[in-house]
């Protein structure tokens, strides 16, 4: 009987094993997860869960009993410590060695931390990636306390929004010229800068962190412009690194993550990868797509190909972020844009930003405008590009762009 082993019990790993069973695979399946909780959804951690609006049980993707009911051996609270690709074995942290016929690496990504030399190891310094992070942060989120957020990306801004809603004094420090600089156009940065400032968040752009202050616990920060900020705790959101710690010593080819071909297969013919740890081809770019949508779709494709189906993976990027009362929905990938066209909505809080590369529509940022998001997504996936002036004209019926 064939044995398929999946390392990583997050969104990708859970989706992969579910797809295997749904498609009729009747061999052994082992799903290995480092956390003690069954597979859960991560996006609400920095939003509804941290706000206390979602119970822990609602985070779980499936009841834990589901895995046993589908004959999936779910190993929680153990890590994979070594991979021997030639012998096709994985050694676990509890000392057990698993032999596999096919292996999937769904090892995700890990938050980058500040160096200890600048205070990164002080008590009261947090990252926001997993359930343990959210549970550790919850007692800190008390009205009147002072939060420093290092990094003005989506994770940092989501945490800042939660803290501000709970009555904390919040300062966001972004070393780049503007928040969201790596992932969005200036127009989108300006929208969220204004949104946060309207809720009392102090946004400081173009200034870096020199060091965190404090002896044993963080008490503040000194910035590169010489100013100092008092803080009761800090959240660090300065990006993530792909989980390649198992793949690299095993000799798998890396390229901004675990390099995969169009079938989600790695450089080893018996190993696949999916989710945040994997790099893939999109058009002429090799990228990692850090999103729930890609984790699910790529994992399901990998499952099919582990069964020998030979199905090519064609990613369709989409993302979202919730901050205060704004829902941002993103369709497409804005890499290489050279023009952004702003479409006003029915209110200042509602607008959409249409990214073009030459005459081609490549992405849409939609703030509180689900119709613009859905239309933009359909256009991008169909390879259709409306005239930018029409797309940006609020008098244009969005549905007419699909005709």
TrEMBL record:
Superkingdom, natural source: Bacteria
Pfam families, sorted: Pyr_redox_2, Reductase_C
Protein name: Pyridine nucleotide-disulfide oxidoreductase
Keywords: FAD, Flavoprotein, Oxidoreductase
Reductase C-terminal domain segment(s): 318-402
Gene Ontology MF annotations: oxidoreductase activity, acting on NAD(P)H
Segments forming domain FAD/NAD(P)-binding: 3-299
Cofactor(s) required, per the database record: FAD
Protein's organism: Limimaricola cinnabarinus
GO CC field: cytoplasm
